[in-house]
């Protein structure tokens, strides 16, 4: 980053990894705007940042709302794409394949749509950081659906890094991270999953949103990183 004040937009910045990233980036030399679909949740996130960030409520899966947001935003420098989807877990034999399409609609489509719409006002000396997941790099039962979804983002990044140069395009692939993504499980089930993966992970614990935020901040700030998959999983993909 240069000496001027730069502006990062975090799509999906109202909770989890997106919110942790906004908190990590905020400071001298960096203005941050967080977005989210739920106005109340977004306002709560904004308050947790001490009101230091800008905020905008819109649904990143709706093209008209995406166009309106970026049309009103004006020029900016960095785009972090933390829109997420939670569908597609489970044994492939019984997996509802429509869940894969649903997760594409929740995660892949909004991330790609936001980037495409932002290109006219996104500083080509800046950066884009997608958020995928380590599931696309694991060979373990039960993740074929979400691996297919997250694999789309891993595949497109090096292509876009060349096509959109000098704009830097990277992707972070988090492992098992303690965020609201897991809220579809009851508390006891969630803790059992966390305990299981903590035992499998070489660092001996599951991840925190702040761990992934640090990886994202590195890619935003390092002007010599592009086309890269930065896996932040505590070494899980090797042990698994």
Written overview of the protein:
The chain has 240 residues and is of the alpha/beta class. The chain is 43% helix and 20% strand. The chain has helices spanning 16-25, 39-48, 63-73, 98-118, 144-163, 187-200, 209-221, 236-239, and strands spanning 6-11, 30-36, 54-57, 76-81, 122-131, 168-174, 177-178, 207-208, 229-232.
**Largest beta sheet: strand ordering:** 3-2-1-4-5-6-9
Terminal-residue CA separation: 36 Å
Number of strands: 9
Uncertain runs are: none
Rounded average pLDDT: 94
Secondary structure elements and pairings:
Layout: E1 6-11, H1 16-25, E2 30-36, H2 39-48, E3 54-57, H3 63-73, E4 76-81, H4 98-118, E5 122-131, H5 144-163, E6 168-174, E7 177-178, H6 187-200, E8 207-208, H7 209-221, E9 229-232, H8 236-239
Helix pairs in contact: 1-7, 3-4, 4-5
What distinguishing features does this structure have?
240 residues, alpha/beta, seven-stranded parallel sheet, two-stranded parallel sheet, 8 helices, 20% strand, globular
